[in-house]
Amino acid sequence: MKKILITGASSGIGLAAAKVLHASGHELFLIARRADKLQEIQAQLGERVHVHTVDVVNYESVKQMASEAISKMGQIDVLINNAGLGYFDPLVEGKIEEWHEMFDINVKGLLNCLHACLPHLIESKGHVINLGSLASHYVFPNSGVYSATKHAVFAISESIRTELPDKVRVTTISPGSVNTPFIDSTTNEKLLAEYKNYFAAGMSAEWIAETIRFAVEAPASAVVSEIITRPNRQVK
Predict the structure, then answer these.
(1) pLDDT tens readout for residues 58-109
(2) Could you tell me if residue 233 is inside a domain?
(3) Is residue 146 annotated as part of the catalytic site, yes or no?
(4) Which of the 8 DSSP states describes residue 92?
(5) What CATH number should be reported for the domain holding residue 156?
(6) How many structural domains compose the chain?
(7) Of these residues, 59, 87, 138, 146, which one is catalytic?
(8) 21-48, pLDDT tens digit by residue?
(9) In a domain? residue 236
(10) Domain ranges, residue 102
(11) Least enclosed by CB within 10 Å: which of 2, 177, 192, 221?
């Protein structure tokens, strides 16, 4: 049994990962901004689940959260940096506050959690799993700034791999489109309508959760550096 901290655990991939990992017998510390949703999940899953409300952008709150995780679980074996969001817009129509929010959550939030948890992960010879994206490798139209945040996530993973290979394992999970509420953040109504069905026809959050479980439960002699998954567009 591993002690696993999951950010953005109240919906989508984070929630699916919580369910899959709990079913595999692991102990979980789930964080998100919605206290009511976290409490609902805790009641549903039962034992071996702790919850904590936090905004990952607030570093002081994140530090307190990491201390609480150690208090509840004794150690942190795995940090799953899942919290994130995306806004789709052409660059010339982009809203600066949305650009800033994507960098705040997708990059700054991830760094806050990594910084607060890294000493504990080194102590436990633990594992960082960062949720990247196909956008970690490609720049898609109407998502240039989001792609930039996910390129940053991949670079952070690689820095852990190159600097701490004997101390912490690291995996980047890089999915293509997934059928979650992710696309609903987009405020460009034309693109939202255009992309809605595309994401709905994507992979299930449960499938991505299974790839996370595979990485978590890989034997100690191996490291899954990255998993890239794409929807099979041949399946209708």
Answers:
(1) 999 999 999 999 999 999 999 999 999 999 999 999 999 999 999 999 999 9
(2) no
(3) yes
(4) G
(5) 3.40.50.720
(6) 1
(7) 146
(8) 999 999 999 999 999 999 999 999 999 9
(9) no
(10) 3-228
(11) 221
